[in-house]
Fold this sequence. Notes:
heterodimer; A: 426 residues; alpha/beta; Rossmann fold; five-stranded parallel beta sheet; four-stranded parallel beta sheet; 10 helices; 31% helix; globular; B: 324 residues; mainly beta; four-stranded antiparallel beta sheet; 5% helix
Amino acid sequence: MSRQLRKPLRPASMLSRLCGALAFTLFLLAVLSPALSEDEAKPGAAEPAPSGDVVTVPIGYLEQEVKRPLPVSRLNVAPDDLGVAGAEIALKDNNTTGRFTKQQFTLDVERVPVGGDAVAALETLVASGHHFVLVDAPAKTLLSLADAVKGKDVLLFNISAPEVSLRQEDCRANVLHVAPDRAMLADALAQYLVWKRWTRWFVVKGVLPEDLDYLAAVERAAKRFGGKIVEEREYKGTLEARRTDSGQQQIQQQMPALTQGAPDYDVLIVADENEVFGPYLPYRSWDPRPVAGTAGLKAMSWHPAHEQWGATQMQNRFQRFAKRFMLPLDYQAWVAVRAIGEGVTRTGSAELGPVNAYIRSDKFDLAAFKGQKVTFRAWDGQLRQPIIVAGPDLPVSMSPQEGFLHEHAEVDTLGIDEPESKCKLK
Amino acid sequence: MSTSRLALALFGSVVCAATPVAAYTVYVSNEKGNSLTVIDSATLEVQATIPVGQRPRGIMMTKDGKQVLICASDDDRVQILDVASREIVGDLPSGPDPEQLNIHPSGSPVYVANEDDALMTAIDLKDRKVVAEVPVGVEPEGVGVSPDGKILIATSETSNMAHFINTETYKLIDNVLVGSRPRFAEFTADGTQLWVTSEVAGTVSVIDVKTRKIIKTIGFQIPGVQPEHIQPVGVRITKDGTRAFVALGPANRVAVINAKTLEVEKYLLVGQRVWQLAFTPDDKLLFVTNGNSNDVSVIEVPSLTVVKSIAVGDAPWGITISPQ
C-alpha cells in the first residue's frame, strides 16, 4: 500500500480556508517554542512500549481529487495535505492511547487522480484488510463507493461531502457523515442571525447546482427559525479568470450595481459555493450591510482561531505537526480517526461489527473541543455537533443558540431531525 | 443576611470549641485577569489582587504554606509566589502550557501535566530542576497524588485514561479507562479510592486504588438543565470521607455526594461555569470558582448552604487555601 506524503497542488474546495498571512509567523512560533521532543526526554522516563499481542487497526483514507477553480483570495489556497494532516495527527493521538491498550493504528492514503477509478482504489484498501475508510470525495463518488462495498466489512466516513441528499433519500447504512451537511450549516448561521434579530435577508445566488442546494438549505432555515427572505437575486456570471490586471476596478463597479435597489433588509446572504462573486461582496454592497452565507460570516465545523473547550491544545499540536493552521477538513478527518480510535479502545476489538455498533450507540461520546460530546445520529449517521459561526479572523459564536429548544438535545435543532428524516438505512 | 448567618455560625463554633476563629488565606487564579485574588476566610473579604503571569490556571500552596505555585499557561512556566512579600520570586521549568499541578506530601517534587507534550513532569522544588518526565496519554490534565505519596495520577483528556505512576521509579503501574475528557483526580484521605471527573461524559468515576477497577460511575440529573451542560470538573472529598463535592461547570451547580453510598444528595446553585473548589483545612468552608460570573461562591459544609459570593478578577479558575 503506497502512502503518498506529497501531492500536486490542489485548488480550494468550498470549505472555508482561513489560512494564510499569519502562517509564517505561526510556523516560526512553532519552531521556536520550547517543546521537548520525545527523543530528548529526561532520564527516568518510562516508555511503556506495547509488547506481545498488539492489535493492529489499519485505517484507509481515500481522496478523489477534483478539478476546482483557484480561490479568489490567495490566502485560501488549499494546503497539499489538507484533511490528511488531520487524519495523521488523530492517528498519533490514537497511537499514544494505543501504547497503553496494546492497539496500534496505521493510516494508508490512496489518492485517486481526476478521472481515476475510486472504486478500484477502495477495493484495494478493502482487500488489504481495511475495515474503516475515510472518504474525501464528491457525493456521486461517495455513493458509488458505498454501493461497491455494500455487504462487506467496511465502514466509510464521509469527511467532506455536504449534500443533504446523502443524509436523506440517498443515505447508506455503511456511511457515517462527519462533515456537516448544508442544512446544519445554514441552520447554525440562521440561528445566530435570528438571535441577533437580523431576520430580513436579501439573497444573492449563483447559478451552479451547489448554489441552489445551499439556497434550499437557507430557505429551509428561514422557515424553521423565523428568517424572511426579502428578495432572491441571481448573479449570472460563471467561472472566469480570477486575476486580471484591472479586475478590481471593474468589481468595484459591478458589486454595488448587483445589489442596488433591494427591499429593506438586515443581512446580505450569498449562495455562491464556488466563489464566483461572493468574496467580492463584503464592503462593496449598495447598502451598508453585513454579508453572510458562503462569504463573510460563515458556518463551519472548525476555525483556526477556535480556542474554547481545550481547542487551544488541539490547534497547538496541529500547528507544530503540520506547520500550518488547522482547517475544517482537517478537523473532520481528525474526528473520524478519533471515532475509530474510541470505538477500538472502548470495545477492545478491531473488528467492524463491535466497533461500528459502539460508535453508533448512545455509549459513544467523543470529546472534540466543542464543549459537549459529539455523537452520531441513529437515523442518518450524521455527526451531531455544535457548529462554529465565524468571520475571517475569529469565531463569532457557536450554534445551537440559546432559546432554540429541542425535546431531546438542542444540537438536534441543526440539520435534519428524526421526524423529517427520509433516510432508511440499508 | 447570609453573611451574618455565617458570622453567627462561626461565632457559635468559637464559643463551643473555645478556639479562635480560624483565618485562612484563600488564593484564586484569574485566568483572563492574569492575577491572583487573595481572600480572608474569616471575613470573606478580598485582601489583595496580585498581578502574575499570563493565563494563570492551576494553583497550589506549598506544604510549608510559604509559597503558591501558579501554572502560568501562556508563559509556559510555573511561577513561584512568595506569600509574605506577595511577589513572584522565581519559576519552575514546567514545559509548555502547564495547566494543573500537585505536590508530593513530603513537599517535593512538584508534578505538572503538560497538555501539549503528553508528558507528566516531576520537578524538584528546591533545585527547581526536572527530575523525571513520564510519557502519558494525549493532553494530560488532572494530577493526583496518593496521601502516602506512592502513587501519582495523570488524567489524559483525549486518551480518556487515569494513568497510575509509581513515584519512586516513574514507571506506569496501570491505565484505567474512564469517561470522556477526564479533568481532575482526587484521592480519598484514606487513600483507598480515586475519584476522577469526566467533563464531556458528565460523570465521576470512583476507582478502587488497590484493584484499579471502577467501583461506580456516578451520573448527574438536574431538572431543567440539559444533560450536555452538566460538565464535572473539580472534585473534593472531606477528610472524614463522608461527603464529596463536584463542580458541574456550566450547570452552575455543585453536586453533593454521599461518599459512603456514592449517591448524589443535593445540588447547590452557585455562580456561572463553576470550575474548581477547595476546602479550608478544617473542612468547614468550601470555596468554588465561577469562571463566567467572575466570582467565588462560599459553601458552608456542615449545613450545605451557599453563604456568600465574592467578586474576584476576570475568569476565576484555580483555588488554593493556606494550611494555617
